[in-house]
């Protein structure tokens, strides 16, 4: 699966490794990593960004790429999970990140489309959620208002809107940030990070391309690697989106439903004209037997409202949710501030990534914003602790279900399929992709949880913490520091 953005957007040139000593090593070339690096080079820091695949290969390149502070009915739900001071800090940080990103893009000649953001409801319960959201937004100083339903081609039970938000082409955003970084002497290097450790007064970053030494490291990879404790506290979510060509009028707003199943709408442009981008369906990573049904449901929903729509691209992306639904922007435990990280953007990576970059870069140069300090010191509420217990219980249940599926004898799957099974006394994952049958260990190397086959994306997905692996076991993303153990491969 290739996203529309990666198919039509610019690519980012990589650099030669050069010196293995630098001021800051940033791990991950998505929006968080590249914006952090760009801001640091502006302050004269020497920075190297390490990327295992290509810039935008993971969450940023698979986003629906809305830069907005109206995010469904998220704000009032956060107020029920976190302390109000932390939510106010989150709003201040979101505004600061949004403003700074748009400034950086403008300086590089990139001007995203400004659009109103709309949250809409299809049911009475959804309309109640919208009323709570409108009250929460206004109480936090955000000028949301009733309205927006008239811009949508289907009936609603209500809608609220926030003016002057933005829809991005995420690969164009990364290209602009990379140009800012590279013009100021920063480098973007392909290297898969295996370990980051404190050493002396700095850090050592161990990769498949050798070691880098720096004063500090920033983990900007969605799930920090390695970080067993952090990963256990996060829910990993996989969500899907698709682009469609249609001759019917398209909405002039960015829209998101508050009812389930979630539906997200925006527009985009390619050489042939305007496209509809729809998204929303998703699942906890490793816990959906057949994600293909989710995209099929999305297709049916789009065709119900745009009957001539023809899908051009479909893709998936991954994000992480904290117990209180606020991002974690801080330091890895035990690193004495030398290893910083950002995660938990809850499917709003453009806004969360920009905010994290401002916070982390500010902390490194000695000017951490007050809102960032409040956010990272916020503590846990009883409501968030209760959600965490639920997350851990659900993880144990998913593991038990995967184990039941794995007890049947291993067989050779059909093309595009994969399954767990017993091969003698060991549990294995067997898949057939592009005519090649491969067998890998059924256990994720992160903490030993079982994986499950994802037939939509042809990957092995961990049922516990969201690591994902290619059919041959190569690591794609998530908290695992290495791939699945390869047992057998045949053409």
Description of the molecule:
The mean pLDDT is 94. The protein is 29% helix and 32% strand. The strands form 4 sheets. Strands 3, 4, 5, 6, 11, 12, 13, 14 and 15 form a 9-stranded mixed β-sheet that branches. It has helices at residues 4-8, 31-42, 74-79, 84-107, 124-139, 170-183, 228-232, 292-305, 349-364, 370-376, 382-405, and strands at residues 21-27, 47-51, 66-67, 113-121, 145-146, 158-167, 187-190, 193-199, 202-207, 210-219, 235-245, 254-257, 264-270, 273-284, 310-321, 328-331, 339-343, 418-423, 426-433, 436-441, 451-454, 459-462, 468-469, 475-477, 486-490. The radius of gyration is 22 Å and the shape is globular. The chain is α+β, with helices and mostly antiparallel strands and 491 residues long. The chain folds into 2 domains: 4-376, FAD/NAD(P)-binding domain; 394-490, Rieske Iron-sulfur Protein. It is built from 11 helices and 25 strands.
Taken from the alpha-carbon principal axes, the silhouette is globular
The N- to C-terminal Cα distance equals 22 Å
Count every beta strand, where a strand is a DSSP E run of 2 or more residues.
25
**What is the C-level CATH assignment of the largest domain?**
Alpha Beta
Q: Please count the helical segments.
A: 11
CATH superfamily of the largest domain: FAD/NAD(P)-binding domain
Oligomeric state of the chains?
single chain
Structural class: alpha+beta
């Amino acid at each position: 699966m290739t996203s529309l953005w990666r198919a039509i957007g610019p690519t980012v040139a990589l650099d030669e490794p050069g010196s293995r000593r630098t001021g800051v090593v940033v791990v991950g070339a998505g929006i968080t990593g590249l914006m952090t690096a760009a801001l640091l080079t502006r302050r004269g820091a020497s920075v190297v960004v390490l990327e295992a695949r290509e810039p935008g290969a993971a969450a940023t390149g698979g986003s629906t790429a809305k830069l907005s502070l109206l995010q469904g009915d998220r704000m009032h739900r956060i107020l029920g999970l976190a302390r109000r001071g932390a939510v106010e800090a989150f709003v201040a940080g979101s505004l600061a990140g949004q403003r700074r990103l748009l400034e950086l893009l403008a300086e590089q000649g990139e001007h995203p489309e400004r659009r109103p953001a709309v949250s809409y409801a299809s049911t009475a319960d959804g309309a109640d959620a919208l009323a709570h959201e409108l009250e929460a937004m206004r109480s936090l100083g955000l000028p949301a208002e009733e309205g927006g339903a008239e811009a949508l081609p289907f009936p609603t039970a209500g809608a609220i809107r926030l003016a002057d938000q933005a829809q991005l082409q995420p690969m164009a955003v990364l290209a602009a940030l990379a140009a800012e970084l590279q013009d100021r002497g920063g480098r973007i290097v392909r290297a898969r990070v295996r370990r980051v450790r404190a050493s002396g007064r700095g850090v050592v970053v161990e990769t498949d391309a050798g070691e880098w030494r720096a004063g500090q490291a920033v983990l900007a990879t969605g799930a920090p690697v390695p970080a067993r404790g952090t990963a256990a506290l996060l829910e990993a979510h996989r969500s899907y989106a698709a682009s469609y060509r249609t001759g019917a009028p398209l909405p002039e707003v960015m829209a998101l439903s508050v009812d389930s199943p979630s539906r997200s709408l925006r527009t985009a442009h390619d050489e042939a004209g305007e496209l509809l981008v729809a998204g929303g369906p998703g699942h906890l990573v490793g816990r959906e037997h057949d994600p293909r049904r989710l995209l099929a449901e999305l297709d049916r929903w789009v065709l119900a409202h745009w009957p001539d729509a023809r899908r051009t691209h479909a893709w998936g992306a991954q994000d992480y949710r904290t117990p209180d639904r606020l991002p974690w922007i801080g330091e890895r435990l035990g690193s004495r501030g030398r290893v910083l990280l950002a995660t938990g953007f809850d499917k709003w990576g453009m806004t969360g990534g920009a905010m994290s970059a401002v916070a982390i870069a500010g902390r490194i140069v000695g000017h951490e914003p007050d809102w960032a300090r409040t956010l990272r010191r916020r503590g846990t509420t009883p409501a968030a602790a209760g959600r965490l217990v639920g997350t851990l219980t659900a993880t144990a249940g998913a593991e038990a279900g995967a184990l039941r599926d794995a007890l049947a004898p291993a067989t050779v799957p059909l093309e595009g399929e994969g399954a767990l099974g017993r091969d003698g006394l060991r549990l294995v994952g067997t898949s057939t992709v592009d005519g090649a049958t491969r067998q890998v260990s059924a256990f994720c190397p992160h903490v030993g949880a079982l994986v499950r086959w994802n037939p939509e994306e042809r990957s092995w997905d961990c049922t516990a913490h969201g690591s994902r692996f290619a059919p041959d076991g190569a690591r794609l993303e998530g908290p695992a520091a290495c791939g699945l153990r390869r047992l057998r491969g045949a053409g």
